[in-house]
Design brief:
The chain has 116 residues and is an all-alpha fold. It is built from 5 helices and no strands.
Length: 116
């Protein structure tokens, strides 16, 4: 079961990553660091953020199931924020991949024009 399906099953609503929210996340320090990452490191960042998020979610669920206090800093708001940044990294990764694909196609087309 994916993280998103799991959270929806527990009735925690996750906001959609809208254009406006992407712009807001870009303005944060964390967002700026993510944007500066080279494309090659982004898949590793996604894996790392996913593991961290799943760990926090597990702690949150265990605390909720046992009616005990959540560990410091783990709230539904922090989980939603972590999830949004995870989606943000995936969005940036897709954007950078698309830009690289466009650049390589442009270089090929330009090279073909010069060869003609």
């Amino acid at each position: 079961m994916s993280v998103s399906q799991h959270l929806h099953q527990d009735a925690l609503s996750l906001p959609k990553l809208t254009h406006q929210r992407v712009q807001e996340l870009k303005q944060t320090g964390k967002g700026q660091r993510i944007i500066q990452e080279p494309f090659a490191t982004l898949p590793f960042l996604v894996k790392s953020l996913t593991r961290i998020f799943e760990g926090k979610l597990h702690l949150f669920e265990r605390a909720r199931a046992t009616n005990s206090a959540c560990p410091e800093g783990i709230t539904t708001d922090s989980l939603v924020e972590d999830y949004e940044f995870l989606e943000f990294v995936q969005f940036i990764m897709f954007t950078k991949w698309t830009e690289e694909q466009g650049a390589s196609h442009t270089e090929i087309a330009y090279g073909q024009l010069r060869a003609s």
